[in-house]
Specification:
The complex is a heterodimer of chains A (757) and B (176). With 757 residues, chain A is of the alpha/beta class. Helices cover 29% and strands 16% of the residues of chain A. With 176 residues, chain B is α+β, with helices and mostly antiparallel strands. Chain B has helices spanning 26-38, 46-57, 62-71, 76-85, 105-109, 112-123, 165-175; strands at 97-102, 136-141, 153-155, 158-160. In chain B, a hairpin with a 2-residue loop joins strand 3 (153-155) and strand 4 (158-160). The chains are: A alpha/beta (757), B alpha+beta (176).
């Protein structure tokens, strides 16, 4: 938007506003209340609800302020008898076929239609004709639908198209019969539930929270999502000791994601109060025996004795400490401190899927925030599949292209769904992602890279040209496919492509909610697979917070350990080997921080008391340290842990909980920016590795199914019955009128069969 | 500012499509190609193509809808959206004779309700249904532009105007 100002007069007051500003936004910013349903910032315009009518001088009729761009000398009236009359009659029309069943509606109490009816509704309804009744039903396991409540603002269809790029729901039929629906009546989409979020009425409802609670019974707690590395801000609605639902509605939370959440963030929470949560500490007194419930005192004492014994007999380095990228910074810091200061072992690692250490060591420019991605001019995505693994990033890319005119260059071995938005799709052979880093570094190896990737060398030339011709921001993203050397080369790109009027921003697509934080707090960056390989050889005991990833399981060597301690929420494949299991508290029960892909440190807040006897991960470690003779001095406050992080870790310097209070202004970690350096060694390494690749790999031509990663049953999503239906292919039920979960009741196979896989 | 690109290419189908995709004879394919060539934006050809698919397959059955989505690079919901908007496009099997009673103002005032009721009674089906033998389908549609001769209905592509109870009887009899 240009900085040129124009003069607009609203209700006889003069305002200087930026040229190109939208009238409805200007009015609202200046405290003139304009009601609206269909207007939604950053979505295509609809102007169908006609609630935002204003009088503009020299225009013949009342105008919808959501479609008007301010021009110089515009004279606007937002309040008059004429406008009030128009708005009241519009609302009367909207309510003409509305069932007015607020007392039994899940949205009652936080409904935009209800609120505006208080402001603009008439006391009595004049329509006495029979209403066009439509039965309520389910659209999918996640989405419940009451079509009669619909006011056809079409926010849902626009969100589905523009945010998600799926177009799964549309308005069908016409005139008075128009309904929101889909072909065949059953939604087979990615089930993000954003249509539910933006619905201003009770038409689209959370199917998993149907008739469970009223909004005013819920305590809203702002927190950060515990699934992927986007770090969406959300509001946890709890009643008593139960987490009822998760929303990102503007009235409760204003984070970097706006009202966006994905299926996991919105619906993946029932694990918190799940009956299979570990209730007490468990001890396996004898190898091969059962895990037996114990008291906290006994478990801590037992663990301390055992660890003491092993360290005394086999040395400090016979003990390994393994963290998880799902833990809070506080928990990871305590683990690291435990390893370094209590047992004094060098063997500390984080069980992440891939390490971004080489990237951060060579980091040549700032990390791109999600806001930067939305306003970028060029986006280069090497590998990865953000639609499935980092849904918010995918949404930002899609909007940058569709609404911001950005150019997306996709380098991927699979034609992922984002290729619809791509200006250039470089379809490479599987496993040749590293060659892309080679191509970015310069044209010397184009012939080799192009041959191995199976593309024309000219395509790589276009890629470099597009980046070096961009005026504005260029965002470079990459997934887990890149090797350490390739990561280093990409990290140095801000120097390679430096130019006037151009900013090169980097965005690593880490996998877990605190992958970046775990790396920031890591000591020497050992890999977890090395530690597992040494199990039974040089490592005889392990202390683990969280379980191993499935890819680490097959050759994990945990059975060769003399002693294994695990902090977990559920009994997993890892706890099957454990000698002591401590019940850990989930993200909804603790205070702490996560660091996301943008480098934002965001607060995790306690919504409910820890269930059963569980305790926060950092507290368990601290108590064990105390038993072993080292008092961390954190007492019972996570903020004390964070203060120490800020004192000890340079990137987190000066951060404090009070400064992280406002989720709408997150603070970025100050990652050290490496200076420009010679990349010859890395490039030679990549060249060698690329040269060894085969020339005739087969390219994947099929776009993968929606949800092939999102619907996968993990330890946490496995606890949500609806996910079992989705993992079983979201079968169309015989009846849409009752909860789709009845399918599990009649066919238990849907659940069991998939849970094992 | 939001701006919609003019030519949206839907290259993937996030929403599940019916497994089967319709196929057509080379002659029909050539006709479809002729229509596609007429429009600078591919999706503009949706109506003529729907008409061809419906003509060939009786109605827009799931394989036909899949074919349209694939051929026009549109989502399956885009096809659904358009198909449900028009009363001459059918997503359900349709009878040999499709009776479309006009229910808009002029016809309504001159008793279109009675005409509909007559048909309902005579055929033994409700509005929007098809008789068991597949001969008749009954629906109510918006104005057919024959207000001067109301009430009226359209059977397939033929207008029947200035309807009376006897006339309706007679017409239905002649078709039964």
């Amino acid at each position: 938007m240009s900085t040129e100002l124009v003069k607009v007069t609203i209700n006889a007051k003069d305002f200087q506003v930026p040229k190109g500003a939208r009238l409805i936004d200007v009015c609202r910013e200046n405290q003139f209340d304009i009601p609206s349903f269909c207007y939604y910032a950053d979505l295509a315009l609809q102007a169908s609800c006609r609630m935002c009518l204003v009088r503009i001088e020299k225009m013949p009729k009342l105008q919808t302020s959501c479609t008007i761009i301010c021009t110089d000398g515009m004279v606007v009236t937002t309040q008059s008898e004429e406008i009030e009359k128009a708005r009241r009659s519009m609302l009367e029309f909207l309510l003409a076929n509305h069932p007015l069943d607020c007392p039994v509606c899940d949205r009652g109490g936080e409904c935009e239609l209800q609120e505006l009816t208080f402001d603009w509704g008439n006391l009595e309804e004049r329509f006495i004709e029979q209403k066009n009744a439509r039965a309520e039903k389910y659209l999918s396991p996640m989405v419940a639908n009451d079509p009669q409540r619909c006011i056809l603002c079409k926010r849902c269809t626009r969100v589905c198209d523009e945010w998600m790029g799926e177009d799964a729901i549309e308005a069908g039929n016409r005139g008075a019969n128009t309904v929101i629906g889909t072909y065949g009546g059953w939604l087979n989409c990615s089930q993000c539930g954003n249509c539910i979020e933006v619905c201003p009425t009770g038409t689209l409802l959370d199917g998993t929270y149907r008739h469970q609670a009223r909004p005013w019974e819920l305590t809203q707690t702002i927190s950060t999502c515990t699934y992927c590395s986007d770090g969406c801000q959300m509001s946890l609605g709890s009643r008593g000791d139960e987490l009822m639902r998760i929303v990102a509605r503007d009235r409760y939370v204003n984070g970097l994601n706006g009202e966006f959440l994905c299926i996991k963030g919105r619906f993946g929470h029932p694990f918190v109060n799940h009956e299979e949560r570990i209730r007490t500490p468990l001890i396996r007194y004898q190898k091969g025996g059962r895990l037996v419930p114990a008291t906290w005192d006994e478990a801590i004492r037992f663990t301390a004795q055992k660890l003491d014994g092993i360290v005394a007999a086999r040395g400090n380095n016979s003990l390994a400490v393994v963290g998880s990228p799902r833990l809070t910074n506080e928990a990871l810091y305590c683990l690291r401190k435990f390893a370094a200061e209590v047992v004094e072992t060098e063997n500390y690692a984080v069980a992440d899927a891939f390490s971004l250490k080489p990237f951060f060591e060579s980091l040549g420019g700032p990390l791109a925030t999600h806001q930067d991605i939305r306003h970028a001019k060029t986006i280069v995505l090497i590998g990865g599949e953000p639609e499935e693994l980092q849904p918010l990033t995918a949404k930002q890319i899609r909007q940058a292209v569709r609404n911001g005119g950005a150019k997306l260059i996709l380098i991927n071995s699979v034609p992922i769904r984002l290729r619809e938005q791509a200006a250039q799709f470089i379809h490479i052979r599987p496993g040749t992602e590293n060659a892309a880093a080679l191509a970015l570094a310069g044209n010397a190896d184009d012939a080799l890279a192009a041959r191995k990737m199976g593309v024309e060398a000219a395509e790589l030339e276009i890629l470099r040209q597009t980046i070096s011709e961009t005026q504005g921001d260029v965002v470079l993203m990459f997934g887990g496919e890149l090797s350490a050397e390739a990561q280093a080369v990409v990290a140095q790109m801000p120097y390679t492509f430096a130019g006037e009027g151009r900013r090169i921003l980097l965005h690593p697509l880490a996998l877990f909610n605190n992958s970046v934080g775990a790396l920031d707090l890591d000591v020497n960056g050992k890999s977890v697979s090395d530690l597992l390989d040494a199990a039974g050889v040089s490592i005889h005991a392990m202390y683990m917070a969280g379980s191993l990833l499935p890819e680490h399981m097959p050759k994990c060597g945990l059975s060769k350990l003399d002693f294994l301690v695990v902090q977990e929420l559920f009994e997993t494949e890892t706890t099957a080997f454990a000698d002591v299991v401590f019940p850990a508290a989930s993200f909804a029960e603790i205070d702490g921080t996560f660091t996301n892909n943008d480098g934002f440190v965001q607060r995790v807040r306690k919504s409910i008391e820890p269930v059963h006897q569980s305790k926060p991960d950092w507290l368990i470690v601290s108590e064990l340290a105390k038993e072993l003779g080292v008092d961390f001095g954190f007492e019972r406050s996570a903020s004390a842990v964070f203060r120490e992080i800020a004192e000890r870790i340079p990137a987190y310097a000066d951060l404090r909980y009070p400064l992280l209070k406002d989720e709408s202004h997150p603070l970025q970690v100050k990652h050290a920016i490496a200076s420009k350096r010679e990349l010859a060694k890395e490039i030679a390494g990549i060249r060698r590795a690329v040269a060894e690749l085969s020339d005739d790999g087969v390219k994947v031509s099929e776009t993968p199914q929606v949800g092939h990663e999102l619907f996968k049953l993990g330890t946490l999503t496995d606890k949500v019955p609806q996910f079992h239906l989705l993992a079983a292919g979201n079968p169309t039920p015989a009846s849409f009128a009752i909860s789709p979960l009845y399918q599990i009741t009649i066919d238990e196979g849907i659940k069991r069969e998939k849970a094992v896989a | 500012m939001s701006q919609q690109p003019i030519n949206i290419q839907r290259l993937s189908q996030p929403v599940q499509m019916p497994d089967e995709i319709a196929t057509f004879s080379p002659k029909v394919e050539a006709e479809i190609d002729r229509h596609l060539a007429k429009y600078p934006v591919m999706r503009s050809a949706i109506l003529p193509l729907m008409f061809i698919v419906q003509r060939e397959r009786g109605y827009l059955d799931p394989p036909g809808v899949s074919y349209l989505a694939k051929r026009l690079n549109l989502r399956i919901t885009d096809i659904w959206e358009v198909a449900t908007f028009y009363s001459m496009l059918h997503l359900k099997p349709i009878g040999k004779y499709h009776i479309q009673v006009c229910k808009t103002l002029s016809c309504k005032l001159l008793g279109s309700d009675k005409i509909t009721q007559l048909c309902v009674k005579k055929l033994g089906i409700k509005v929007g249904e098809m008789t068991a033998d597949g001969r008749f389908s009954l629906s109510e549609v918006e104005c057919l532009g024959s207000c001067g001769t109301a009430p009226m209905f359209q059977i397939n592509f033929d207008y029947h105007e200035n309807l009376t109870a006897e006339k309706v009887d007679q017409i239905l009899e002649s078709l039964a």
